[in-house]
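Sample log: GTP cyclohydrolase 1 type 2 homolog.
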Amino acid sequence: MKVKEIIQAIEQFAPLQYQESYDNAGLIFGRADQEVTNALLTLDATEEVIDEAIARGCNLVIAHHPIVFGGLKKINGNNYVERVAIKAIKHDIAVYAAHTNLDNVRNGVCKQMAGKLGLENCQVLQPKRGLLKKLYTFVPEADIEAVRAALFAVGAGHIGNYSEVSFNGPGQGSFKGGEGAVPHVGTVGERHFEAEIKLEVIFPVYLEGKIIEALWSSHPYEEVAYDVISLENAYQDVGSGLIGTLPEAMDEMKFLQYVKQQFQTGCVKYTPLRGRRVKKVALCGGAGSFLLKKAISAGADVYISSDFKYHEFFDADNQLIIADIGHFESEQFTVELFYHILTEKFRNFAPLKSTIKTNPVNYL
């Protein structure tokens, strides 16, 4: 198996196009065509993790956080990032990161958090915009099913929990084939009218190449008329954070103790209790203070995330409880997610989970 095959499996689950503009997800070090001996899964690709990969015979490290976040002007071992780069390259170890793209998919990092709490009816807290497009095309009535099926097969027509979604409107098309044309119907040099179906399907932007290829390969016309437009619709399956409900409402303090236990954290920093039971819970892996207002407007009783600054705790304003559980603690189960993605895709491949706890924060 090659590195690129493993990357393809991860990016099929969490496309790189879903990462934030500031991010650096993807293959950080190494070659995509390199054969994989085994893969080591981790939250952070630290120097200690690279040592572990060497010791355990792994030449691919898959991390959540990109070890290189900004540009490297020099690589001379003066800091931990440069030391990782030198050691990984020296030992021919590829390093790959799936970061905010894995955060932003509905079944990604936040879903792992929600699963630990047993949340139900989870929805993306802040769906992203600008990630959807729509295809319009015109197909002879006799060929519409074949074209529809080809487009559905490569991922067109998915809206929420529904698949094979399309709009089909009857109409009449006209064309006149010129010299050298080989029309599917009609006669060269004569205007022809054909009963056609206007077909509309929605699709995520990263699939555009496959959508157009499927259209051309399945459409009977020599020249295919179609339009692709960008949509500003919110993509309900992609975005920041999740919000869901507990199976049964809980006492506030008991819920916070439950959170501490489930996330194995040495500390939960929280705002004043409100004297209400907890039913609706919002959460976000990593630094999630930017979603606080969204959690409040969505009616959450508690918002679980990390890296809140002192003054940001005041912003809860008794409208919900902020529970800051720590950055590492909120994302630690990403390793389990990587393992699930790869073992589901490759039944004969057993990646290794790192035994190194990379959390740089300790608690007394």
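Observation: The mean pLDDT is 97.
Observation: The chain has three domains: 3-98+333-353, 105-125+239-325, 131-231.
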